[in-house]
Write a sequence for this structure.
């Protein structure tokens, strides 16, 4: 675990957040709800159909070593599977309102899951969960830097940018942005596990809802 | 958080000026706002405390990295939970018992039995057995420094060397890979020779850590650095383990990475210059830092 005191000074973060437009939704293609929306948002008989989320865009952008072109789609798919499991459990899936987000860290290594449970106010929708009606993703991207010394990926840093709209009935909807790095290695079943994270989160009222 | 009075006054003046020069609210477009941002970081590693024996081999091109002498010997303890660390420098000429080979310079252990025997000799001296042994050579060290874009060291001494026309200054020096190698190799211009060289090697390790921490968020930086380690370093760690360790090590804070060099008088044995290293000091350092990789009682 890394001490939280290593975080950037709050003032710099506030300034950076303002500079990067932390209060406005990007209106690029990735931010538009798509017909090919995630199947992760649940719908139940008692609730209206959940709004659609944009697809999770996962792309290999850098490779240190060699990774054959034919291996990239499989790697992207496998990492997407791990990242989706986290994002779904932490934000998109489940019956809202809810308060239990402990299952969000199933793809984390045991030690990372322990740390993540401690940080779950930041890593999940727990704080808004009790007043949430639905959540949809308006941006879901992960750009992968891959370590592949012997033509096989051994480690991946996923630079993620996730934006969610949290609908809360009569209360003001919230826009939650979670961005930063997720660190992954292969697990014993040849899937991918998150062994580290370095994330920042901002939350603003969604004024156009 | 408390703000000093002076800062509050400055803040008040800034706000007052802003109120005067900004157009009325009705004419402004709210294209920026202040947003509270929270951060969380953690890296999971199977061990909380890791001891790594870092060896610099003097192998020349064509020679096997682990079949020659080790000229740089640093036993590095890292506490991945607290972010503290300890570097124990062992003078290469330390005259010690080498298992199965009698008394000799400690750096001959590498020649006799490779990294394993080298680790054994250091463990017998310091009382801490390393979890991993990393060995690199001249070219490998330069390759790894190149992969991270050079380093900045703080030198205790000014000295000159042909590879750096402007010389090495006391204080801050930005070094390219070759200059960094020389910084860790020279001993003649240094007041205490081998001991100061060992301290310079510790400063190099600290500078690498500073560099990595400053750039770890740059996409591809960590992967490039680990790739260079895979290419240039002898280790039995799988790349995925090395990757995980490298990511965890970025949690070590350079300011909490303390270094000590084992001291002792110099002399001659059979015409060779040796250091009669203080085994008492070596054991005391080992006992102090063994469990938490933290030196609580100084050098």
């Amino acid at each position: 675990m890394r001490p939280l005191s290593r975080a950037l000074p709050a003032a710099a973060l506030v300034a950076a957040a303002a500079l990067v437009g932390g209060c406005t939704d990007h209106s690029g293609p990735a931010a538009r709800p798509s017909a090919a929306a995630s199947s992760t948002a649940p719908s139940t008989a008692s609730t209206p159909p959940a709004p659609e989320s944009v697809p999770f865009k996962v792309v290999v952008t850098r490779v240190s070593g060699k990774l054959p072109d034919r291996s990239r789609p499989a790697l992207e798919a496998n990492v997407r599977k791990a990242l989706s499991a986290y994002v779904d459990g932490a934000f998109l899936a489940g019956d809202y309102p809810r308060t239990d987000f402990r299952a969000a860290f199933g793809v984390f290594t045991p030690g990372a899951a322990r740390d993540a449970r401690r940080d779950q106010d930041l890593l999940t929708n727990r704080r808004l969960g009790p007043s949430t009606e639905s959540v949809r993703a308006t941006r879901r991207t992960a750009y992968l830097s891959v370590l592949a010394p012997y033509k096989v990926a051994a480690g991946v840093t996923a630079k993620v940018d996730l934006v969610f709209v949290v609908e809360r009935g009569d209360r003001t909807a919230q826009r939650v942005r979670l961005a930063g790095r997720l660190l992954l290695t292969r697990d014993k079943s040849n899937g991918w596990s998150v062994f580290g994270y370095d994330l920042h989160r901002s939350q603003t009222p969604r004024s156009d809802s | 958080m408390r703000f000093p009075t002076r800062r509050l006054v400055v803040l008040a003046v800034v706000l007052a000026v802003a109120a005067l020069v900004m157009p009325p609210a009705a004419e402004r477009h709210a294209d920026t706002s202040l947003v509270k941002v929270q951060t969380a970081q953690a890296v999971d590693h199977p061990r909380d405390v890791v001891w790594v024996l870092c060896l610099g081999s003097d192998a020349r091109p064509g020679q096997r990295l682990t079949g020659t002498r080790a000229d740089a010997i640093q036993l590095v303890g890292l506490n991945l939970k607290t972010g503290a660390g300890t570097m124990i420098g062992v003078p290469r000429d330390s005259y010690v018992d080498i298992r199965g080979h009698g008394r000799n310079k400690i750096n001959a252990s590498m020649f006799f039995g490779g990294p394993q025997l080298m680790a054994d000799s250091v463990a017998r001296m310091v009382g801490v057995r390393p979890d991993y042994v990393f060995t690199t050579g001249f070219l490998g060290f330069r390759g790894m420094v190149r992969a991270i874009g050079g380093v900045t060291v703080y030198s205790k001494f000014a000295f000159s060397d042909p590879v750096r026309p402007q010389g090495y200054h006391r204080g801050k020096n930005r070094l390219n890979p070759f200059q960094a190698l020389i910084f860790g190799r020279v001993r003649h211009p240094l007041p205490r020779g081998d001991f100061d060289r060992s301290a310079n090697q510790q400063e190099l390790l600290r500078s690498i850590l500073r560099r990595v921490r400053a750039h770890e968020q740059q996409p591809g930086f960590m992967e490039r650095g680990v790739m260079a380690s895979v290419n240039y370093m002898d280790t039995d760690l799988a790349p995925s383990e090395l990757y995980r360790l490298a990511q965890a090590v970025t949690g070590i804070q350079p300011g909490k990475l303390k270094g000590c060099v084992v001291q002792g008088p110099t002399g001659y044995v059979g015409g060779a210059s040796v250091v009669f290293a203080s085994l008492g000091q070596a054991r005391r350092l080992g006992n102090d830092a063994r469990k938490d990789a933290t030196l609580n009682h100084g050098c």
